[in-house]
Amino acid sequence: MKTIAVRTIAVLVALSVCVAPVAWAAEKNGNESPGADLGLGVASFLCSVPYGAAKVALAIVGGVTGAFTYVLSGFDKRAADSVWYTTIEGDYVVTPDHLRGKKDLRFTGVPPESSKGGR
């Protein structure tokens, strides 16, 4: 079972590497073509599969950790929010704009600013 997972990951990485030049060519060439759009779409899908799985795993672990933080901190929602916003917020899917460099890809979110009044 482990070898199947390793082979699948190896195939996905190989396909991503093969499709990456299409994204670079689209960036160099100012005018968009259907082939470049197709290549960017396929590349974004291939990148989104492992990236999205890792992001969902982080969000689940962060959700549980945030719940423990909430309970163990004496029901301090700000403490839990700092964990939840950092782990649950962010991008779950790689889009063609991420591959073009037009949009930043954020794996983690940014916790909200703490209130100045304090506790």
Give a quick rundown of the structure.
Helices cover 70% and strands 0% of the residues.
Explain the overall architecture.
Helices cover 70% and strands 0% of the residues. The protein has 119 residues and is mostly helical. It has one domain. It is flat.
Strand content: under 5%
pLDDT average, as an integer? Answer: 82
Unreliable sequence segments: 115-119
> Helical element count?
4
From the N-terminal CA to the C-terminal CA, the straight-line distance is 51 Å
Radius of gyration: 19 Å
Main beta sheet: none
> Globular, elongated, flat, extended or rod-shaped: what is the shape?
flat
Number of domains: 1
Question: How are the secondary structure elements laid out?
Answer:
Blueprint: H1 2-28, H2 34-72, H3 77-88, H4 96-100
Helix pairs in contact: 1-2, 2-3
Write out key terms for the chains shown.
119 residues, mainly alpha, flat
